[in-house]
Amino acid sequence: MPLSGRDTFMKLLRAWLGALPGYLWSGWGAIASLLLGMALWEALAAWYGPLVLPTPLETAQMLLQLMQGHGAEALWPQLAVTARRAFAGLSLALVLGSVLGVAAGMSMTAAMMARPWVTVLLGTPPIAWLVLAMLWFGTGDGTPVFTVFIAGFPIVFAGGLQGARTLEKRWRDLADAYRLPWHMRILDLYVPHVLSYLFPVWIVALGSAWKVVVMAELLSVSDGVGAALAVSRAQLDMSGTLAWISAVVLVLLGLEYLVLEPIKREIEGWRDAGGRAS
Fold first, then answer.
1. Domain shared by 22 and 78, yes or no
2. How many domains does the chain have?
3. Which of 20, 103, 128, 255 is the most exposed place for a label (fewest CB within 10 A)?
4. Which of 121, 63, 84, 115 is nearest to 209 (CA)?
5. Do 204 and 261 have their domain in common?
6. Which CATH number goes with the domain that contains 167?
7. End-to-end distance of the chain based on CA atoms, in angstroms?
8. What tens digit of pLDDT does each residue of 235-265 get?
9. Percent helix, percent strand, percent coil in the chain, to nearest 5
10. DSSP 255
11. Tens digits of per-residue pLDDT, 118-170?
């Protein structure tokens, strides 16, 4: 029996939707969660009033004004300054934490010696490092960059160490049995396994970097998103404060779902392949 026009359309629609990347589907749950949060925000704003909590629409209008502004009130220059500091500290944490963590994980002695220091660094609150950084580096870029680095380094280090320590012996024995060359061992065995541990902690470090850099700017420098938040707080400008916070959150969401999530799925494709093979 020939298909009707409606059936043909539905069949083509299902085929097109099925061809969409999986990470786009995974984003629908996050979008639903965000919409639910905004509905709750709207309800609380109606209850408490704009002096305590502006509505999402008022915040969006203020964010649009900041995006169209010029000078110290403009969003993009301040956001660029914050991003530069955050990514400078984050890059140092990712590179040094990954390399040193993997190196320590390859030796039981080094792993045992590093463990208490990782605990100390993880247990020290970022605000304590910020105070020390202000004494050491003053009110320049060094303070927020160092604070971001020291907050993210132990997280990445622990992930690299765990990835290196958990490589199963049977895979190494299999590589020895087949006499795999060194480059195949590194690229096809070691790197995918270690990255499956490193990539999640990289995402955590990214979120931590933005939170820490804004806090550091709030207390130590005169530019950046943190400094703009300090001005909004001094002026009791709730809509401006929420607009600056929303800008940072939107940047984080964009980085995670548009950049990091597709990369993560590509890197961890071997997990799906292994699951299908089994």
1. no
2. 2
3. 20
4. 84
5. yes
6. 1.10.3720.10
7. 39
8. 888 999 999 999 998 898 888 777 777 777 7
9. 85, 0, 15
10. I
11. 889 888 999 999 999 999 998 889 999 999 999 999 999 999 999 888 876 66
- Map tokens 């304590």 to a residue: 128
Q: What is the DSSP string of 38-66?
A: HHHHHHHHHHH-TTT---HHHHHHHHHHH
C-alpha 273, offset from chain centre: 26
User: Looking up tokens 């820490």, which residue turns up?
Assistant: 212
Measured CA angle at 217 (ends 214, 222), to 5 deg: 140
Q: What is the DSSP letter of 4?
A: P
Backbone φ and ψ for 54, nearest 5 degrees, come out as: -65, 160
Convert 182-221 to b/e letters by CB count within 10 Å (16 or more is b).
Answer: eeeeeeebbeebbbbbbbebbbebbebbbebbbbbbbbbb
Nearest to 145 by CA among 157, 156, 133: 133
Element (H, E) at 182: helix 182-184
Question: How many residues belong to the chain?
Answer: 278
Q: How confident is the model at residue 22 (pLDDT cuts 50, 70, 90)?
A: low
Whether the CB-CB separation of 183 and 133 falls below 8 Å is answered with no
Domain of 244 in residue numbering reads as: 69-275
CA angle 53, 58, 61 (to 5 degrees): 145
CA–CA–CA angle 50, 254, 146 (5° rounding)? 90
